[in-house]
Design a protein that fits this description.
The chain is α/β, with parallel strands linked by helices. The protein has 13 helices and ten strands. A six-stranded parallel β-sheet has the order 4-3-1-2-9-10, sandwiched between helices. The protein has a four-stranded parallel β-sheet with strand order 6-5-7-8, sandwiched between helices. It binds D-glutamic acid.
Length: 268
Amino acid sequence: MDKRPIGVFDSGLGGLTVLKEIRKLLPEESVIYFGDNGRTPYGTKSKQTVIKYTRQIVSFLLSMDVKLLVVACNTISALALPELRPSIHVPVLEVIEPGSVSALKKTRTGRIGVIATPATVTSGVYREAIHHRNPGVLIFQKACPLFVNLVEEGWWDNEITRMVATEYLTELKSESIDTLVLGCTHYPLLSEAIRKVMGDGVVQVSSAEELAIALKELLKAQSLYAAGASANYQYYTSDSVEKFEELGKLILGEKIDNVHRVDLDCRA
Ligand code: DGL
C-alpha cells in the first residue's frame, strides 16, 4: 500500500477529462494535477519544445514525491515520452495505447477515424498502435489544431466551434467511419459539437476509461494501491488560477479548490 499521490499532467485542461475517470474508478487515490495552460497548445510546437516543457513538468511532479505518472496528453505521449521515459524512475502510463484498444473494441466495420493535434497525427503513433493490434483496419486521420484553443477558451459548443468542427470533419465524415478516436484529451469536451457533424452513428472513443482501468491494474500489480486512504487533490497551473478553477469545475462537475500557480520556466 502506498498513499503517495499520482502525478497527472497535460498541456492544459484536457487532462482533467482523464482525471475525472481516474477519480471515478479510484476514489481513494490522491492526485497532483499539472496543466501547462500558460504554454498551451503543445500540438503545434516542435518536438524539441515539447520535450523541453515535459522535462520541466516531470521534474516538478517528481519533486512532489509522486508514486506514478499519468501522461494525460497525446501530444506529449507521442513526442516526448519515448525520449524521456528511460530517465523516469516511477511507472508511467500514457494515453495512445488505451485509446487504440478502445477503438478496436468499438469498431464493427474496421473503418476508424483519428482526430488529434498536428504533432500527434504527423507522428503516426495511433496508426502504428492500432495496426500493431489489427493490421486490417482502415485508418483516416485529421489534425484539428484549433480545437485545443477552443477548449481552453471555454467555447465547447457554440456557433464558432460548430463551424470549425464542420470545416475539420466534413471530409472525415465522407469516409464512412463507424468509430472516431478523440486522440487529444481536450477533445471529449467538444463531443457534442463533434456529434452534430459526425452524427449519432459514429461512436466517439477517448483514452480516459481504458487508461483508468490500466492504472487500477498497475497499482494492484505493483502494490501501489492507496487502499482505505482518503484522497486529496492538488492542482497546479502555469496560468490563471481563477480560469482554471472556473473551467475545471465545469469539467469535473464539482467545485475545485487547492489550485496553485507555478511557473516552470523559473524553476528550470
Ligand atoms: N491534451 C493534449 C493532447 O492530448 C493537447 C495538446 C496541445 O496542447 O495541443 O494532445
